Amino acid sequence: STPGARSSQALLAAVVCATFSVATSASPGSGGSAANNVEPPEKVVNPGESLSIPCFLETPGGSVQWMRNGHPVVLDVGSGGAGGASRRQWNISRDGTAALTITQVTRADDGLWECREFADDDSVRRVTKVLKLVVTGAPEEPFLTLGGERLHEGARITIQEHEEAEVGCVARRAVPAVRHMHWLLGESNLTASSQLFVEFSPQEDSYTTRSLLSLNASRDLHGLRLSCHVYHVSWPTSTAVAATLDVLYIPSFSISREPGFGFPILEKMPVSLHCAVDANPPCAPRWLKDDGPPPVPQSPDGFLNFSAIERQHAGWYRCAAVHRLGTFASYGYFLNVRYGPEIVEQPPSQVAADFGGPVQLECKADGKPPPSYCWTRVRSGRLESMAAESSLVLDPVLYSDAGSYQCTATNHLGWKEERARTRDILLTISGRPDIKALNKTLMAIVGKPVRISVLVCANPPPTRAYWIVRRLLLSPGEAALTHYVAHNYSSADTPFCRTTSLEIRSVHPEDAGEILFVARNPKGIDDAAIILNVTHQASFSFTEENSFAEKPEVNWMLAAWMSLTLAASGRLRSGAS
After folding, report:
1. φ and ψ of 494, to 5 deg
2. Helix (H, G, I), strand (E, B), or coil: what is residue 541?
3. More exposed terminus of the chain, fewer Cβ within 10 Å: N or C?
4. CATH of 431-570, one of 3.30.428.70, 1.10.10.10, 3.30.200.20, 2.60.40.10
5. From edge to edge, which strands make up the β-sheet containing 337-345?
6. What is the pLDDT of residues 204-255, one digit of tens each?
């Protein structure tokens, strides 16, 4: 055929391919060569762009046929024809290069382009895979899904705390496929935690890309913006689709106090408690005291204000809230109100006790913090500390324990010490006499005076009292001749007690030995023995102590005195009857 005829035939055909690899062979009986199996380069163009597809000829000016996806391409109206400019046109240059120029590329141009060169006998000389043309198809606007359900733009993703949600990002009808989707949660990039899936739809001749992201909901994610950024070659920049996380979580409570924690709360001072609740959806706080209503009204914003707090306001306080997920409450907070000590029960002003028996004095005080106790006794115008307990126990009680007692309760409010005292308690002792020798052993010098003293305690006072010395009985205030003088009683510091003494004006050697003082009252009898050792001034000699059994004269005197006292007591009993 002539070159003009071959040109007319080339204007009527081209090659298009809908698959990614095509093997083209010469027509049967044509004697042509097999197709070139070398994979052609890929070129991606957008619809509306222009494209030139070259084909290198072995024989300059030879015949060429274009194939797309293994099918001849019917070209548009010839170049310069009456129908105007064609969208697809080709030409062969003098250097042997043939080119197909496509203006206003459309999706119909997508595919594998081949160049078929014919010999002079119209047989196929060579088939060349020239280009794999990809004409982009912009995807539809991407959208998010939750559990497979499509979400509208700007939706809220509602999920409960600690639950897991699968959020999807979908881009449909894209050519080529979307290969990149980036996830952002706030400022955090979560792309590495997502999975990308690509599907091809033969019916739509396009791709659908899905990116799935699993979210573990926590309250710190609430309100954050979750966005999916989709990248495609047909778009100059990425396209984003977003939603806001709505994480439902149970209330958490924050309790504050004015004055601040660590500062002691004193009675009568102003105090404010505040409860802040963090929850989604929000809920109002409600104060409880010991699981009941609070003692003062609560403000709507969670304040509990005490203008002058009282001790009865102390107790366990909790903040509660009713939420769509249930009813919740904070841990308990103990509001401790401090106040100074107070004596809650005054002891009796007078307490009578039996000599030798037990006696217990009680002190009962209230205070926060609990007070410490101190028992004191007034003696000779001074306070004597007796005990540091709430109870004072005297066992056995002695005449020396008689007197005025007082209990002091003390605590500290901050740096200030607070005290409360009981009234004075007068302790009286009654019982048999209690005789104490001021010196149980004395040393006397012959010819010199000596004084022997005893402390006599008794309530009621003694009805009989005697000094027994040698063969004599001397009552206090009585003198026998000029040798012995029994001095009268004199007062002592101890209640119910007096002192008395026996004076020997000039000691004789026969005064050595035991001297006895005996006293009796209606409740009993007691005695005290004093050992008098006599010596000469130049040399010392000691008289051994003798018991009553070893001194017959003392035994005789004591027996006589006992007979007198027993007879007297018998008369007293008969008179009383």
Report:
1. -80, 130
2. coil
3. C
4. 2.60.40.10
5. 265-266, 337-345, 364-368
6. 888 999 999 999 999 999 999 999 999 998 899 999 999 999 999 999 999 9
